[in-house]
């Protein structure tokens, strides 16, 4: 039965949001969106506010990623919306179903120079699946429901609506649309069979599983396919943890050997971008499995590319009944390389050097983090080490900026993670460069009693720029930060706590204090500026 709703525009929007499972709002206060606050406040709908709009969008994205449901950010008109565009763009690249609701200057005065008057749509349209101005209160439930359905339909992504002042403040009534179930995208069975035959017959196959495997709730199907076909699995993004590290087919350290010698590389739920050599794996055939036809790579000609619901495709791989090659020798070879790499990593993570090497930080973190801890990466050089040394043991526990590579996600992601999982550890790994983008939002975490641990790798430089620039030109510019800056004192001034660590032996006790603190706590680790992550450049 259709439900009739009435009230001001904020109440109408909130009714549609609740129907789709949205349970919280992230925002920075602005008069253009007061009715949304009124609707939330008077009905007990939680509001979390921030000090910069980008953090509101990043927090909404963290909820969308972790909980696989829509996240909501509410931004005031003009600069409120423009400040959120980097967050929207990250959500677009990460296929995160985020809804941004924006205020808008009154339509009846449009062109007269109202406060913060601008047309947002041309700015947000390129980085959203749908962008629309809703001109009447009566139309708000329809628009919100349609936008959320679009956001959840593979390939998922952010959507944007804005409301002129007279629309959101006016009273209206309308039918509340029932949530539209998103039907699975049926893959072409012939293409699925072609891919399964290639994988099963390969002598040295490899699977690389990415974020869409988690977003599409296909983790169990991935495991079934890997086990049925006996194919080693590597992961990136939110695919990390899809197979626990102790699983016999889970690999992380032997990627160079695997991709150098594989004859079939199966990339599931992640684009063939710079993180995967743009899909160039030498002589290996490429099978690219995507959740929608729009995600097929245009710059690579794969041997097969099934498109559709990842659960259906991976389950079909698991059920493949054709001839299968024996991959035991290949798996054993990779396991030998994996074990050797682990031994090298163990030595690096135990290094007792002065200054502290980043690897040692992660060695201590591996002991401090619980299996279900949410780990957030916000940085370049320092966070690159996290990808190497930390191995999530559960899916849905790893957040990084994704392929767009936008710094400043840290505090927003931390807020969204803490709201999503109030009983888990939440740990932000942050370079000292990234700290400049969002650290002020520690105040938001303190004020709203959202404790997190922040570990800053403080080497006083922009590591991914300084070293490559010196290699290219013999000098560097605009790549230095203030050495040994006391970021922990910044957090203390904002109401949290923290300490600076200069000796490797002090790392473990500092992390224990941080996780026991019950407030936002920053461990400011002075790391070696000469110890850059082993890559020539981040410009590829």
UniProtKB/TrEMBL annotation:
Residues covered by the Thiamine pyrophosphate enzyme N-terminal TPP-binding domain: 9-121
Domain Thiamine pyrophosphate enzyme central: 192-316
UniProt keyword annotations, A-Z: Thiamine pyrophosphate, Transferase
Keyword Mitochondrion part of the UniProt annotation: no
Any Pfam family the entry gives: TPP_enzyme_N
Family to which the UniProt record says this protein belongs: Belongs to the TPP enzyme family.
The protein, known as: Acetolactate synthase
Organism of derivation: Micromonospora humida
């Amino acid at each position: 039965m259709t439900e009739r709703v009435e009230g001001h525009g904020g109440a109408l929007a909130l009714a549609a949001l609740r129907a789709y499972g949205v349970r919280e709002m992230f925002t920075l206060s602005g008069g253009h969106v007061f009715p949304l606050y009124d609707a939330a406040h008077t009905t007990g709908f939680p509001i979390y506010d921030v000090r910069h709009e980008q953090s509101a969008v990043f927090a909404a994205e963290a909820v969308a990623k972790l909980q696989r449901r829509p996240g909501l950010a509410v931004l005031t008109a003009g600069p409120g919306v423009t400040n959120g565009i980097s967050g929207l763009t990250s959500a677009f690249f990460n296929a995160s179903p985020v809804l941004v609701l924006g205020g808008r200057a009154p339509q009846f005065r449009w062109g007269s120079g109202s406060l913060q008057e601008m047309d947002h749509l041309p700015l947000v349209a390129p980085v959203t699946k749908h962008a629309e101005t809703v001109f009447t209160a009566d139309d708000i439930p329809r628009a919100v429901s349609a936008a959320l359905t679009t956001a959840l339909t593979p390939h998922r992504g952010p959507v944007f609506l804005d409301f002129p002042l007279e629309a959101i403040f006016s009273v209206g009534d309308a039918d509340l649309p029932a949530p539209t179930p998103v039907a699975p995208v049926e893959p072409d069975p012939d293409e699925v069979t072609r891919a399964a035959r290639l994988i099963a017959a390969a002598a040295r196959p490899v699977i690389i599983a990415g974020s869409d495997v988690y977003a599409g709730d296909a983790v169990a199907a991935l495991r079934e396919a890997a086990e049925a076909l006996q194919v080693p699995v590597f992961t990136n993004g939110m695919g990390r943890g899809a197979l626990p590290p102790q699983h016999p087919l889970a690999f992380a350290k032997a990627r160079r050997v695997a991709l150098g010698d594989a004859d079939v590389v199966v990339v599931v739920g992640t684009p063939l971008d710079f993180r995967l050599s743009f899909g160039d794996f030498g002589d290996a055939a490429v099978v690219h499995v995507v959740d929608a036809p729009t995600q097929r790579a245009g710059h690579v000609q794969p041997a097969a590319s099934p498109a559709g619901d990842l659960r259906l495709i991976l389950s079909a791989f698991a059920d493949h009944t054709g001839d299968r090659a024996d991959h035991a020798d290949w798996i054993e070879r990779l396991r030998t390389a994996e074990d050797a790499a682990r031994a090298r990593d163990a030595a690096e993570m135990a290094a007792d050097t002065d200054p502290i090497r980043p690897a040692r930080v992660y060695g201590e973190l591996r002991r401090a983090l619980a299996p279900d801890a949410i780990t957030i990466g916000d940085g370049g050089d320092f966070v690159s080490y996290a990808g190497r040394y930390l191995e999530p043991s559960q899916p849905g526990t790893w957040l990084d900026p994704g392929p767009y590579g936008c710094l400043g996600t840290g505090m927003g992601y931390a807020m969204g993670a803490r709201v999503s999982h109030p009983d888990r550890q939440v740990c932000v790994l942050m370079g000292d460069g990234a700290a400049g983008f969002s650290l002020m939002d520690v105040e938001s975490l303190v004020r709203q009693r959202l404790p997190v641990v922040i570990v800053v790798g403080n080497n006083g430089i922009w590591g991914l720029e300084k070293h490559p620039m010196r290699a290219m030109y013999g000098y560097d510019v605009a790549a230095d930060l203030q050495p040994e800056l006391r970021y922990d004192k910044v957090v203390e001034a904002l109401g949290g706590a923290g300490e600076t660590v200069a000796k490797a032996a002090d790392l473990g006790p500092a992390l224990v204090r941080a996780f026991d603190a019950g407030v936002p706590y920053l461990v400011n680790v002075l790391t070696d500026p000469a110890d850059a992550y082993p890559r020539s450049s981040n410009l590829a």
